[in-house]
Amino acid sequence: MRRKDVLDLDDFTVDELNEVLDTTEAMKEVLSRPIKRVPPLRGKTIVNCFFEASTRTRVSFELAAKNLSADVVNISASGSSVEKGESLVDTTRTLQALGADMVVMRHPHAGAPYLVARELDACVINAGDGWHAHPTQALLDLFTVRERLGSIEGRKVVIVGDVLHSRVARSNIWGFATLGAEVVLCGPPTLIPQGIETAVAEGLHRKMGNGVHKEHAAVRVQYDLDKACEDADVLMALRIQKERQAGGLFPSIREYSRLYGLTRERVAKAKFGTLVMHPGPMNEGIEIMPDVAHGPQSVIEDQVANGVAVRMALLYLIAGGQGGKV
Fold this sequence. Notes:
The protein is of the alpha/beta class. The chain has two domains: 14-134 and 304-318, 3-Layer(aba) Sandwich (Rossmann fold); 135-299, Aspartate/ornithine carbamoyltransferase (Rossmann fold), CATH 3.40.50. Helix content is 41%, strand content 14%. The chain has a five-stranded parallel β-sheet. Strands 2-1-3-4 form a four-stranded parallel β-sheet, with helices on both faces. Helix 4 (112-119) links the parallel strand 3 (102-107) and strand 4 (123-129). The radius of gyration is 19 Å and the shape is globular. Mean pLDDT is 90; it is low at 321-326.
């Protein structure tokens, strides 16, 4: 992969996305072996800098790095020099001087990984920055859909919930649309970014020279979830945060759940075999009902499991595959 950093999917080409997904298949085969450790990143040091709480993403990156035989160091804001007033750039420069080859960063402020990537020679992977982006979550979502449905092009993917504040939604929009899916965004008008259809259309137009499947790629907004679910191939619920109600963005949790919660009845409006997804953590009974979250069409556990393979693929590709075959 001819890039030093992975900060979002808005600049990924079709070929790059497919390269990651194809490599993930090889990594899943590695994870199916009795001994799951292979040597490609032996001698490399990967530092996980998580300045925001995380379980799935942090553990997933740690397992991925160790499975590739890299040395892993975990750092959180608590107890680091940042807590003493050191700048983020100086902290990460120190890590690079200590031998970090890659920095995996989660930060509560949008743009923080971009700042660090400009200052470091080490590779930087964005593990989530504010409301902005979460590229590795989107990649594992893309892989899960392709693995289950065989292809992404021409599929109808419905993302329902708090799109405005969701870094997962933003990265998924770019990923699915680039690979030719129709992306439908659904939620209260107060939780859908204004002008998002035009913004994504312009971004896709700029990427057309890189092979975007323009005959299918589209992003549109639908405020009625029952209509949005019709003929959907994928239904993805986003976590609703209760502080949004405190901010007056929707009347009540009960009202939100009634209008935008994924129920069996709504799933039944979609295509037979539609996939139900959620990036986690879930508020069961609010944005997704328990019988849907754990029902036969749910691939939520697959998403979590695929996260390790996707991150192994990304670490391997960013490192240039220098360690040889897996």
